Amino acid sequence: MREVAVIGIGQTPVDEHWDKSIRELAAEAVILALQDAQREDVDALYVGNMLSGLISQQENLGTLVADWAGLRYTEAVKIEAACSSGAAAVRQAVIAVASGYIDSAVAVGVEKMTEAKGNEITAALATAADADYEAAHGVSFVALNALIMQRYMYEYGWQHADFAAFSINAHQNAITNSYARLRERITEQDYAKAKMIAYPINLLDASPTGDGAAAVVVVPKETLRKNGKPIIKIAASAAATDSIAIHDRNDPLWLKAAEISSKKAYAQAQVKPADISFFELHDAFSIMSALSLEACGFAERGQGPRLALEGKIALNGKLPITTMGGLKARGHPVGATGVYQIVEAVLQLRGDAGENQVADAKIGMTQNIGGSGSNIITHILVKE
Q1: Would you call the peptide bond into 200 cis, given omega within 30 degrees of 0 as the criterion?
Q2: SS (H, E, C) 99-160
Q3: Of 17, 83, 171, 296, which residue is the catalytic one?
Q4: Which of 123, 161, 234, 334 is most buried by its number of CB atoms within 10 A?
Q5: What's the pLDDT band for 227 if we cut at 50, 70, 90?
Q6: At a CB cut-off of 8 Å and minimum separation 6, what does 112 contact?
Q7: CA 218 to CA 256: how far, in whole Å?
Q8: 204: closest CA among 215, 191, 220, 219?
Q9: How would you classify the pairing of strands 75-79 and 44-48?
Q10: pLDDT of 114-156, one tens digit each?
Q11: If residue 85 lies in a helix (H) or strand (E), which one and from where to where?
């Protein structure tokens, strides 16, 4: 297997893009990534997306995006893995290039969500849950995460206010990210007064949806030459699954797929948790931040919130997370999120993160979660 490196990145702001279709958003990110890579074409295109058929009434997305991005005749497919579709597309690009069957590939994640009504989006997102035993009973993803958070607070003695630091940190980092949707500071008081959605999850526990696209170009590392710029190697790409339905899991308070995929990634990259410079985790809800930190070995079981309360997740902390705002404040266009995470990791490792730069960043980790922990993909990127 060949080593794989990222040579190009591109992203659109996460926003309500009323003037752009799903093909235009995806093509814009692809073209920006190709320009950054100083290339005009690639051998393959992988499109990460969850909702195009349900919301945009558009499938065959790979071909559509390839044509619109000027890559007509290029091999192209859509990859779907719920909210982890973006990282799944990146993983397919990595596997293709590493195998030798493909010498260059672009992975783009895209989602167009804001033109649909709220109830339509809720119903569409619920298709990532168990249709027979969860969605059929009217349980939304907010409700599922609320049940997990309720149990977590009961088991470990945390109060709702103890999770505020996750959201405050994400919003603080988003202020200086021009691609983020919610670029405003929030306080503990704001968090406490936020509208309750499904107890204990309130509006500031949950990430906003939006329209957006992000793309990365990957090639064999062996084809690159040192030219004064850092080479960003994808040192690990690992995935794992769990049951779709939460009630079928051995332990609903433990992200087993995160544990498995992160351990695989650590082994592939030959690193340990203490070596990670920053972690772009999947903070769709604040409870997921705590569970991810624990499952990936950064916090003891039941102690995830402590890292946030002690300031260890800040840009200057022991383990910076959501360095560009995360899902919570950058926004969560679901099929694109995993690629946004990779783009942000590359910016950090290149030293191009501006005011959000993590000092001496050498090893970055990203983790994209599909469903309520049913499909989890972990990548580790290294600056060389």
Answers
A1: yes
A2: HCCCCCEEEEEEECCCCCCHHHHHHHHHHHCCCCCCHHHCCCHHHHHHHHHHHHHHHHCCCH
A3: 83
A4: 334
A5: confident
A6: 17, 21, 22, 25, 51, 52, 55, 56, 211, 333
A7: 29
A8: 191
A9: parallel
A10: 989 999 999 999 999 999 999 999 899 999 999 999 999 999 9
A11: helix 85-99
Does the active-site annotation cover 332? yes
CATH architecture of 138-207+235-383: 3-Layer(aba) Sandwich (3.40)
CA distances from 291 to 8, 37, 152, 174, 302 (A): 32, 36, 9, 22, 8
How confident is the model at residue 161, as a pLDDT? Answer: 98
What is the topology classification, in CATH, of domain 4-117+210-223?
Answer: Peroxisomal Thiolase; Chain A, domain 1 (3.40.47)
Arithmetic mean of pLDDT, 277-286: 98
* SS3 call for 291: helix
Report the distance separating Cα 55 and Cα 73, nearest Å. Answer: 27
Radius of gyration, CA atoms only, the chain? 19
**Predicted structure pTM score:** 0.98
Q: Residues 17, 160, 171, 332: which is the catalytic one?
A: 332
Asked if residues 210 and 181 have their Cβ atoms less than 8 Å apart, the reply is: yes
Same fold across 4-117+210-223 and 138-207+235-383: yes
CA distances from 4 to 17, 77, 308, 309, 357 (A): 33, 20, 33, 37, 24
Q: In this structure, are strands 278-280 and 363-370 parallel, antiparallel, or unpaired? A: parallel
* Angle at which helices 61-68 and 22-37 cross, to 10°: 60
